[in-house]
Amino acid sequence: MATLGTPSNTIEILRKYNFSFQKKFGQNFLIDTHILEKIVAASGITKEDCVLEIGPGIGTMTQYLAENAREVIAVEIDKALIPILHDTLSAYDNVTIINEDILKVDVNRIAKERNNGNAIKVVANLPYYITTPIVMGLFESNVSLESITIMVQKEVADRMQVGPGTKDYGALSLAVQYYAKPEVMLQVPPTCFMPRPNVGSSVIKLTRYDKPPVEVFDENYMFSLIRASFNQRRKTLVNGLTNAANLKVRKEDVVRALEEMDLPPTIRGEALTLEQFARLCNLLLKKSD
């Protein structure tokens, strides 16, 4: 089977199966072999690794992963792509194709069954509309993960790695940085895809921490605080938290906690670091004891 990472081979396989792109699945297939090689290199895959690929499409990147990994589990939601994948990956006996929505797959079970419970690596060219739910779903389900190397919209990659005081900084930045070290590995222009997206893309690698860089009494509560503080970006942190119905925090408690942290009551959520949100969380939980 020919390598798929070229426009002509991609067109050939799409014609053979009379495949039409599904807008609802956000399908954009890579057609640049150099980018594919760089993604595999960035992911640091070795012959010891079990790799979970999300959204293999027609198997373009799967071929590269199969050459470099011990085993590849490819999860594809579009059933029209399954016969194509069986064709394009027929030469590889170390690939398992699962026709399922990744948000409904028990990734923990895959890690246990296929990798003796050891940490797996995730590699994906993700549809832009579903990047955040997939990444957060993987982190929050406590799957045994070593890293996630993903192609995402450039703007989303920027959001994952920025710090306080920037326009892209928000709940996603803090959530990703609580679980993993983010690192943008390369930029990918629209010309490397078929069909061409309207935006540039980035490959970002999220290397999972053994333990988070901050200690919190209750991480769910901390993320509720973070979400509430960014839900109304233009408001002060005090107002954002006291207006959030689900939090039930008193204004004076937030002001006192900020005082203890040497922060003014007029500060906005976008100015706080992850460490400061963790400390605020712990102080507010102490107050409610």
CATH class of the largest domain: Alpha Beta
- Radius of gyration over all CA atoms, rounded: 21 Å
- The number of distinct structural domains comes to 2
Largest beta-sheet characterization: 7 strands, mixed
Describe this structure in words.
This protein is α/β, with parallel strands linked by helices and 289 residues long. It has two domains: 7-208, Rossmann fold (3-Layer(aba) Sandwich), CATH 3.40.50.150; 219-288, Orthogonal Bundle (Helicase, Ruva Protein, domain 3), CATH 1.10.8. It contains twelve helices and nine strands. It has helices spanning 7-16, 33-43, 60-68, 82-88, 107-115, 131-140, 154-161, 171-179, 219-231, 237-242, 251-260, 274-288; strands at 29-30, 50-54, 71-76, 95-99, 120-125, 145-153, 180-188, 193-194, 201-208. Strands 4-3-2-5-6-9-7 form a seven-stranded mixed β-sheet, with helices on both faces. The chain has a two-stranded antiparallel ribbon with strand order 1-8. Strand 3 (71-76), helix 4 (82-88) and strand 4 (95-99) form a beta-alpha-beta unit. It is elongated and about 65 Å long. The relative contact order is 0.10.
